[in-house]
Amino acid sequence: FAVASTTKAMTAACVGILVDEKKIAWDDAATKYLKGFQLFDPFVTRELTVRDLLTHRSGLERGDLLWFSSPYSREEILERIRYLKPAWSFRGRYGYQNIMYLAAGQIIPAVMGKSWDDFITERLFAPLGMTSTSSRQEALRGVDNIATPHAHLDGQLTPIEWVNIDNVGPAGSVNSNVVDMAQWIRLNLNEGVLDEKRVVSAEVIKEMQRPQTLQRLDSLTQVLRPSTHFAAYGLGWSLSDYLGRKIVQHDGAIHGMRARVVLVPEERVGFVILMNSTRSQFHASIAYRILDHYLGGPERDWSEVYLKLLREQMEKDKAEEKKKNDERAKGTKPALPLDQYAGTYENEMYGTITIKQEKGKLAFQFYPAFVADLNHWHYDTFEIVYRNKAQGKDMLVFVLNASGKVETAKFGSVGEFVRKK
């Protein structure tokens, strides 16, 4: 299975090994090791530390399409991140950010002269006996016992293709199984030692499990789990309390797969849940059933709880889809002939969108992976219908200038692309 973002704690541990060896320090400037690394705000570029990279407090929103199914290498992703404008103040709040974890992982080749992939294999997987675990998708070639990711398409649970996310590896590219992940769990419960072999110091493990960035408890958490009083992020771990115990855990989700790793250090209990579907919260229901059992909870029917939430979300999605359709202006047409929308549109961070006219309709391409038909919605707005159904749908809005020519195209929530030709 893909263990997705549960990889982040492994990357934090690898960075921690460099801290143990006094090659780096948590509070060193990131630019001390990442030469040429630059963010939109020069102040943040200067002040950002190794610790900041690992604690989701950079002030940046996710910008995940910079890596998801993109053609960009790890180096090019970090080169382009300078164009992502901050969404809130630096260190002002928690904001989940995969690309900062990529940056943290890239400190390893800068310091050690070897890739994050080689380092994590040599210094983590090998000592723990995680022989079926890898960080690159190519390692799965020729392996038969592989889970198939699934998505709900047209109301049916449908197998979909694996998505290669090697280019954001330190944030989530590890593939593993429950036997290997159990060894990783044992290491963390035993403060860095497995089978009398120290892999990482106890101090690093403790630092990873200390609150670094506070998170606000949402109203749903307060209703479902009233015994939870705090939430925070450590170094690669989400932290909270439940039934009087500190819970150290992390979720992972990537295109048809989901994972959760949970530790209860005081009880020396840990477990991993791996799924090959992402729609439901079934992994959460299993997790709380296990926690209730070990911590003496009331053993609620968490499957019923999360199924109810799923159904409510599905109804909400239907209502939003109906609202969108109801607000569609009927009987409108594009302001221009279709061939005048065709062209190349560029965004300095994400790259190029190509619009072509094919068989009397417009076709859309973003990266090699995102190919779609553009169906007229209303006025100069078109619905993007991806030919790979697992990618869903989006909207594209063309904006005309004072001369009546297309000047920009707004691509969903991704941003504005300026017409070049």
What is the straight-line distance between the termini? 43 Å
Secondary-structure element order, N to C: HHHHHHEEHHEEHEHEEEEEHHEEEEEEEE
The number of helical segments is 12
Major β-sheet annotation? 8 strands, antiparallel, barrel
**On the 0-100 scale, what is the average pLDDT?**
96
Which stretches of 5+ consecutive residues score pLDDT under 50? none
Shape: globular
Strand order, sheet with most strands:
11-12-13-14-15-16-17-18
User: What percentage of amino acids are in beta strands?
Assistant: 15-25%
Instruction: Calculate Rg over CA atoms.
Output: 23 Å
The number of E-state strands comes to: 18
**How does the helix and strand content classify structurally?**
alpha+beta
Helix content: 25-40%
Can you walk me through this structure?
The chain is built from twelve helices and 18 strands. It has helices spanning 7-20, 42-47, 50-53, 74-80, 98-112, 116-128, 169-172, 178-189, 202-208, 219-224, 282-295, 302-326, and strands at residues 150-153, 156-159, 193-194, 197-198, 213-215, 231-233, 238-242, 245-254, 257-264, 269-275, 343-347, 351-358, 361-366, 370-378, 381-386, 393-400, 406-411, 415-419. It has an eight-stranded antiparallel β-barrel. A hairpin with a 2-residue loop joins β8 (245-254) and β9 (257-264). α1 packs parallel to α5 (98-112) and α11 (282-295) runs antiparallel to α12. It starts with 6 loop residues before the first helix and ends with a strand. The model has no long low-confidence stretch (mean pLDDT 96).
